[in-house]
User: What shape does this take?
Amino acid sequence: MTTTTTQVLKNYINGEWIDAKTDDYQIVSNPATGEELAQVPISTKEDVDAGVKAAKEAFKLWSKTPVPKRARILFKYQQLLVDNWDDLARLITLENGKSFKEAHGEVLRGIECVEFAAGAPSLMMGKQLPDIATNIESGMYRYPVGVIGGITPFNFPMMVPCWMFPLAIAMGNTFVLKPSERTPLLANRLADLFKEAGLPDGVLNIIHGAHDVVNGLLDHKDVPAISFVGSQPVAEYIYKSASANGKRVQALAGAKNHSIVMPDANLDTAVKEIIAAAYGSAGERCMACSVVVAVDDVVEPLIQKLNQKADEIKIGNGLEEDVFLGPVIREDHKKRTVSYIESGVNEGATLVRDGRKDEAYHGNGYFIGPTIFDNVNPSMKIWKDEIFAPVLSIVRVKSLEEAIELTNQSDFGNGACLFTINGSNVRYFRENIEVGMLGVNIGVPAPMAFFPFSGWKNSFYGDLHANGSDGVEFYTRRKMLTARW
Ligand code: NAD
Assistant: This one.
């Protein structure tokens, strides 16, 4: 498999690619082969300062640029992303490992964010009331917030940054992005294409790195808002630190998503959706299905069909045809997953399918086959923790009420699905589940860009979620004018 030649990545500041002020570099490897793709700088606070300075300077003009003019650049950007769709998808597969088909879908999710942001003239409109009292009018006007800091995870190198910077920038803000140091390549491509679309220098800046860059953004007096997506402990840290520093913050976190299967469900649909949700992107999705709650006598045929479909999955390099299951992101993540499989066995769960038996597990790259545990219960680590890998746990219950009670015990509340053909089951599920994004006969109920991405409980820290009307509120502040003439 030929790949791009190894490159030393630079930071993107004020429209130029600039060497980071550091000697510390990390290897970015292709998870399917283990080969080196690039070296990413672990930048310093000095680099952050330079990025924020450029963004602050650019804000002066960009925030005053008429909204339709800003939107027109977003339209051009959308077209460039469409034109480069296959290349972007290939790059995602190369650095993340997910299948080319999944990567193609991810590019679409990113493009949809840009399309939503291009509606800025409508999204930024205020509200007026001409007569709050005799001869007195009142109006609300929307303005950008300033320099936004964005920190993103490895699992969606295109979609998650696109939840943030296109909308923030369309609203008139400027942006400093710190992509995941494990998948930093795509962000650079996104910046190049935005420049080509006509984005003025300094409006989008990229500082590569890890904790120091994050802390540099959290502590910076010229960064009034932070958007974060990543794991739960880091999200909590980001939320607490940023809010203690007086910033507005949205921090989207980890998950443990349950799919409840009722005895009346269309089993073929349920199995198809669950297989895609549990093993697509190697389970490295915040909306992945990691627990199946099998109600009553659906359990035996369900396990039999899941096992059979899992056996049919093609594992391998995501750039190869028909590969469905790629590698996990790094060797240490593979080891962590194996330790979860061992803990499941030690805690008494039944290992129905062991992903370590698959050939790819023993080759190069960080592969682990589809794994299924039965007889899992809420005292087990494999039920509690987000494993973020192709490991599916099955819990047996007797009723929908019991299934919902179990799901609600989780600390997380990102997604939950119900498979049934009964409308009253759906109503009961919707009204009683303590989770923010629900699917009915759908395995991955991720909302599209024009709706907020609405995790609950430990899956989200903050008030306003990413995307949709929440995103518009997060990236704008309001002025209220009351006037007598
Ligand atoms: P991560 O938390 O390890 O890293 C996310 C970002 O935080 C990266 O840019 C990383 O450099 C930075 N970071 C990591 N540790 C840090 C620390 N101690 N201090 C400061 N910064 C730190 O997450 P990840 O492994 O890249 O991504 C996977 C996680 O993201 C999963 O938990 C997944 O559920 C979650 N996720 C959530 C959503 C959502 O919408 N809720 C979407 C995608 C991913």
Summary: The chain has two domains: 7-254+455-484, 257-411+415-440.
